[in-house]
Automatic annotation (TrEMBL):
This is Glycosyl transferase family 2. Residues 5-168 form the Glycosyltransferase 2-like domain. GO terms for molecular function: transferase activity. SUPFAM superfamilies: Nucleotide-diphospho-sugar transferases. Keywords: Transferase. InterPro entries: Glyco_trans_2-like, Glycosyltransf_2, Nucleotide-diphossugar_trans. It comes from Hymenobacter roseosalivarius DSM 11622. CDD domains: Glyco_tranf_GTA_type.
Amino acid sequence: MTTFSFIIPTYNRVAFIKQTIESILQCCKNKTNYEILIIDNNSTDNTAHVVRPLLENPLVRYILETRQGVAHARNRGIIEAKNDILIYLDDDIDLDAHYFEVCNIVFTDPSKDIVGGKVLPFNTEVPEWLPKKYHYLVSVLDLGNEPENTSMLMGANYALRKTLAERIGWYNTELGRKGTSLMAGEENDYFNRSKALGYPLFYEPKLIVYHKIDNKLNKVYVYNHAKMNGKAEGILDYKYAKLKFSYKIAKSVFMIALYYIYGSYAIGIRERTWFKINQLYSLGYLSVAKDKLFI
């Protein structure tokens, strides 16, 4: 029997973490081939107290990871997990009722090593001003209804064999959120390293989570996240793709100029948003060039 470890990194999400764990428990009702690891990334709120009653269930464990950063929490999950399949979920999601069943079926196929699915908004809609291309900035992913190999998955909802995680290695702790910072990129780096080893990403549309994203549906959050994404990609390109890094420096300068010449005056709200996101992404990317090349 295949066994599963749900890994939930969390930081100061006391309003959501209990609901997330209860959703997993409900989805896995009457099953015993799983465990839930709550990886508390040094929370300063009441997280430990709120989850304590859930620990009466022997399938739920609480682990304090004091090294700040979601990458450290993801790595701790690899260390602590006892089971065959690692399922990484955000701390503010509800599982679709069939999630565990679908995950179990997918991993009966030995050719599937790393799999993700839909991340849909919970009881809300993505604002009209945000182009669909950038829905990922509010942690939404919907690649359609056909299972297929893919170039991208989302950190809020993916699973992989523990044997593959051990082969890929640790998440890059230079990347990813640290406390309240919206720094990103640790999961994309991990996915890229998986593909480089010959393990493609697979998208299963029936593997669905519902994400509580009301706090993200504003331009301040989206624009900050775009800038941090640019910074994360700059760090990765500088490390792994120097030629690409040079090209994207030039592209970033061009996109910033284009924003001021045209984008900031665009009539359509989606068009203006598109240009603003690209301007801020470019500023984040160039901040890496400044740090690496000029200081």
